[in-house]
Amino acid sequence: MRKKNVQAEWPVWILALLLLTGAAPRVVKGRCIGCRGAYSLRTIQFITAQEGWANASQSWEGNGSGYATFLHTKDGGKHWHRIPFVWQVGAESPPPFAFVDRNHGFVEWDTPDDGVYHWSTTINGGRTWRHREMNRDVEGMQYVQFFDARNGYGAGDKRFQKTTDGGATWQGVELPLSSMDAMSFFDRMNGIIVGGTPVENDTTVWAGHARILVTHDGGATWKLAELHERSLGYAIDVSWIDAKRAFIEMWGSEDSGSEVLRTNDGGDSWTTHPDDTFQGSNKWINDITIAPDGRGYLFFSNGKDSFMSTTTDGGATWKTAKSRYAISSCQLFNGEVWCSSEMNIVKFALPAF
Hints:
The protein is mostly beta strands. It has one helix at about 10-20, and strands at about 25-30, 30-35, 40-45, 50-60, 65-75, 80-90, 95-100, 105-110, 115-120, 130-135, 145, 150-155, 160-165, 170-175, 180-185, 190-200, 200-215, 225, 225, 235-240, 245-250, 260-265, 270, 285-290, 295-300, 305-310, 320-325, 330-335, 335-340, 345-350. Mean pLDDT is about 90; it is low at about 1-10.
């Protein structure tokens, strides 16, 4: 009997992934316990290989609002249990959250009936939660990031917020932005905020292009970063490699597609990446995740197909192939890149040098 050529029967996308990464991704198929309707994972944060947290959203077809909620898994993403008190309107802005270890975590959410914002904390891994209403000058944060159980940052509604008591109180400063698009800190000192550039004399009106603010003193002061080309659209994320290198994923309006900005000086100046494979009309970047050694991934789509690009030199150059996975967001975990895709977790080995 002739030996069967198994490799010849592999789908083209599998062969492409093997060529790019040297290993096929591992998929954990998940489902949401307690969700009404079809939800998709958004931001994920695994604390251990089995325990993780995520926000998730459900968009109504023909309606831009939908619902968003907060989920917890203890079996590596096979089952996601909805945290019952978090159930809010607005799929585009799911509840921001942060965990610093298995015990200490934070989430902000609002109640659909009255629009009141709440700050909830746990010190025992989500077994119990303490809730408090948020003050008007703090509510509506879109991003939170904590470094330990007491010290953290938040951003939303053109304000940067800082807490030293686990979110019981916040101290904020208004930033010269027309909107808040993204916030990320590499460490407690170095951070980036991206928002809209306001028109002159009216901070409520967007001038149509991005403004990048950078801090090197933990948010005590912010300065306007140098942007060599005027970047149209808004930021969806900031992705750090190390304290000097980072990327900003930009989305334009209508069909103008995505743009990737990069810095090599900690955010003080930015240029547009020269590779147009994943930039331009009808190309929409969802995530960039690169390890400190320079190996990583970029995921994008063209509205019909999904694609994956790999790098081994810190994002200077990329190799691209079609992918079957529509990726939402990713994190580095245990030397791999773990990503959310619908209700599933897709685990990619870092590409080989």
